[in-house]
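Sequence in, structure out. Go.
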Amino acid sequence: QQLQRGNLVETVKQALKDSGLAASLLELEITESSVLENPELVISLLEQIRELGFSISMDDFGTGYSSLSYLKNLPIDKLKIDRSFIVNIQDEPKNQIIVKTVIFLAKELGIHILAEGVETEEEHTFLLQNRIDSIQGYYYSKPLPNDEFEIKLFNREASL
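Output:
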C-alpha cells in the first residue's frame, strides 16, 4: 500500500532523518505482489530509494504471479525464496527444480539470494550444495530478544 500512495520516498527520507542512521545500514523489503499493481511506479520509487543508499529486497519470492520481465528491471539487491519452496525440499523434486533455477537466475542477474524458513539439516545441505548466498531460519535459531541475541553472537565470535 505504501508503494501505491505516492509519498513513500518522502516518508523514507523523513524516517531516515529522524533516526540519524545511515541509509546503507538499512534494507527496504517489498513483497512480490506489491509490484504487480503498478510496476512502472514501483520501479521508479525503488530506484529513488536505492539512490538514497538503501538496499532493497524482495520477500516471499515465488508466491505471487511474478514476471521475469519485472525481475530483470527491478532495482533489487536481494531476493528471498519463500519457505513454501524450502519445506521438505528433499522429498519435493519440483521444488528442488524451482529453487535451483531461482538461485541460478538471481546469481546471473547479480542479485543476492536468501532462503527463508530453513529448519532441517537436509534443507540446509541442499541449499549449500546449490550455492545459496544466505540462509535464515530456525535451523540456526528461533527469534531472540536483543539481549539473548547478543549473548549468542558474542559466544559464537569468541569460539571462532
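Check: The mean pLDDT is 89. The longest helix spans residues 93-108.
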